[in-house]
Amino acid sequence: MKKGKTEILKEWVAGHKYSYAMLYLVFYLVAFFVLDFTMEPKYILHCALDDQIPFCEYFVIFYFAWYPAFFLSLVWYMLRDKRDFQQLWFIMFNGITFCLICYVLFPNGLNLREEVPNRNIFCVLVNLVRGVDAAVNVCPSIHVSSSVSIALVTAKSNLFKEHKWRKAAIILLMILISISTLFVKQHSVIDVVCGAAVSLVLYVIAYHTNWRKLLKDKLKVLL
Fold first, then answer.
1. Nearby residues of 207 by Cβ (< 8 Å), 6 or more positions away
2. Nearest of 172, 181, 191 to residue 56 by alpha carbon
3. What is the DSSP letter of 136?
4. Whole-model pTM above 0.85?
């Protein structure tokens, strides 16, 4: 009897238990939106550089590119290379967790947003983002932290040995996604720097410590 797609998927997951790490996304989405709609910012972030960066609605294309890039990068590494996937979720998911903790301990927000008339489709998209994502819980930036984590793992991955242009394209896209948060006024420079710093610290831990050995008992299924 020919196996159905659901049965094939179940068998694959059973044989690749490290894929269970993807369940973290459920926690992330619930936690993010709960905090987004319940937290009141006590600290408004702003620096002089924010005033020097002009609003440019066209960067919303790269801002939106984060959503498929975030999910597809996890799926792609999960299917192609176990070790790269583990490095990615270690940096990305720990980074997100740290960001969420910061939002609880130091509720923060922005006052950079100015009214944007719907003069073109790009402005409509900017207003769409603002309608579902309040100007709170911005530092460190999860948008930036996760993008930097993808760029760092991609830079170290051996999957692109024969396709260096693909590696360069992915890293460039992650850079554009990160700076897009500034041009559409979704984040302050402070948020971007802190978001990048979170992933850089976790990158050092991921690639220069034996974190698997330390977490073997607690995360045995995922390793």
1. 87, 156
2. 181
3. B
4. yes
CA dist., res. 11 & res. 118, Å (int): 49
- Residue corresponding to tokens 């850089």: 200
Which residues have C-beta within 8 Å of that of residue 173, sequence separation ≥ 6? Answer: 62, 65, 69
CA pair distance 44, 136, nearest whole angstrom: 9
Taking the C-alpha atoms of residue 138 and residue 36, their distance in angstroms, rounded to an integer, is 10
Over residues 148-191, the pLDDT tens digits come to: 999 999 999 999 988 899 999 999 999 999 999 999 999 999 99
User: Any idea what DSSP says for residue 117?
Assistant: -
Q: What's the pLDDT tens digit per position in 45-69?
A: 999 999 999 999 999 999 999 999 9
Report helix angle 142-156 to 164-183, nearest 10: 170
